[in-house]
Request: fold
Amino acid sequence: MQTIALNTKSRPSTVLCGAGAAKQLDTILDGKDVFVVTDENVYGLYKDFIAENFGGAPVCVLPAGERHKNRHSLFTILDKMLQARLRRNSTLVAFGGGVVGDMGGLAASLYMRGIHAVQVPTTLLAQVDSSVGGKTAIDHRGVKNVIGTFYQPEYVVCDPLFLRTLPQRELKCGLGEIIKTGALDAKILDKLERNAERFFDFSFLEEITADCVRFKAGVVEKDECERSGLRKCLNMGHTTGHALELFYKRRSHGEYVLIGMLLESYIAEKFDICAHDYAEELRALIGKVLKRVPRFENIAEAAGLALYDKKNQGENEVSLILPAKRGEFAELRLTDEDYIGSVEEIAGGLA
Ligand code: NAD
Ligand code: GLY
Reply:
């Protein structure tokens, strides 16, 4: 197990990563007034674990899935926190994937203006990305993550133990964020290329999770609240990914991120941000996980939702974080017309 420190101005956060991390929950939560948030799938699989490891704490079980990442679920959590008479020194444990983590983190940051939070991510995507760094959110009126806070959890406990029950499709979603991190960090990219046949091997996933967490912690320490622009790099592939996710709703976040990265790699080439060979290298890695690009109806309308992206600064402008060279990224701002036209042309060529 590795211990990774994430020190921001707001609050220090400690990430425990690797086999055996969950055993530390005993010590982390010792003497604490605990409240658990999870979803129905995770509860079904880990009811006994929850009873044994969270000391009989009250459990708020939410319906699973992105479509429930909304104000109704948020207020369900807050109502249950009030019923459980939580106080400012209570600890909310978010036990689940990124949806539970984002909503649990938001509730912890709002209740009494902030109580302690611990993230126990149970999906690969949540372990390599969403549980670390303190972004919390719900979706609202069709806009992804539009209501949220920056609120660091005191601990994040990433144990590969939980990945054993994860469907392969969900592992692929996590691999999407791992490949994204590889496009930002040359050492991680080298490791991914050397181990491309081990993407579904749990010992490899354990090792690469710690690498990704360490990389993300370094970025978040430098730009916790996405002010300087550095943290935006973690959004590579997400402008297009989020737009397609909101419009089509059929697949999960991680799959749309993979598709977003694929489409945006062609945009990077088209606008001379990235050389063809490097774009092909990234596409080869994406292809190890994403076997087929679906055919998208009304893609221009879907791409139009990128105008709601939080990175955009001007009206009718779409901001993209694109791969430039190994370990380097660049931000490209396109007019909506250029962006939508490019996505339409590229997706049409792939179908
Ligand atoms: P998710 O939370 O919906 O989990 C995916 C599915 O796996 C769900 O059905 C869930 O019930 C199930 N599941 C969870 N753990 C399981 C386990 N151990 N075994 C079997 N099934 C399990 O989705 P996700 O991919 O974990 O997270 C996606 C969310 O994360 C999106 O809402 C996205 O916006 C958010 N996100 C946030 C950040 C951030 O920095 N805060 C970063 C990336 C993504
Ligand atoms: N996943 C994007 C971020 O944490 O900033």
Remarks:
- Residues 193 and 284 are 9 Å apart (CA to CA).
- Residues 202-222 form the longest helix (21 residues).
- Residues 129, 133, 135, 231, 234-235 surround glycine (ligand 2) (CB under 6 Å).
